[in-house]
Amino acid sequence: MNTIPFITVEGPIGVGKTSLGKLLSEHFQYYLLKEIVEENPFLGKFYENIDEWSFQTEMFFLCNRYKQLNDINAHYLSKKIPVIADYHIMKNLIFAKRSLQEKELSKYVRIYDVLKEDLPTPNIIIYLHASLETIIKRIKKRDRDIEKNISSLYLEQLSSDYNDVMKDFQKRHPHIPVLTFSGDTLDFVQNKEDLKIIIAKIKDTLNIGAYTNESEK
Fold it and tell me: 6-207, superfamily in CATH?
């Protein structure tokens, strides 16, 4: 593939997106774009009362991700510098459709459609999924204060939403490879062999050797 690699890692809360993005960035020596999470001033309140704080929370995320993606397009991709991001802009709709009321969702979607028009499009998506048990275990392990009030039902619903959206995405965008990996069977943080499986699949899919300065770690 001749285009500059722009890889995004997606999946539900706690599945390991940021950890994998960091490991891949270190291996390929690509710029890592990390989403803003804990900086969202509404997130803690959102997990305590979704109905009350959903619109403010989702708008904060949308505006920040829009700014981040515009910046990496201007400062990295346009200068032929490969990028790995630990999110795809599509996640905004996944969360918004789960948490917003119909009237607010309608407003949100209109804003989303306008903002995403000129954003860069990834040429590969890595989709991580895992069982609810694994996700809860990992959320507890990272021990973020703002995530202590997340309900199991909300996490389960999000996982289901992600599965549906990724299936639909593959149908609508067959030219963008989606590489799917299970967090239940692969521990890419603790097991280097598991990480090598993912790295090999990425290299095979995008033929990105010309754009990498790979680490021997």
Answer: P-loop containing nucleotide triphosphate hydrolases (3.40.50.300)
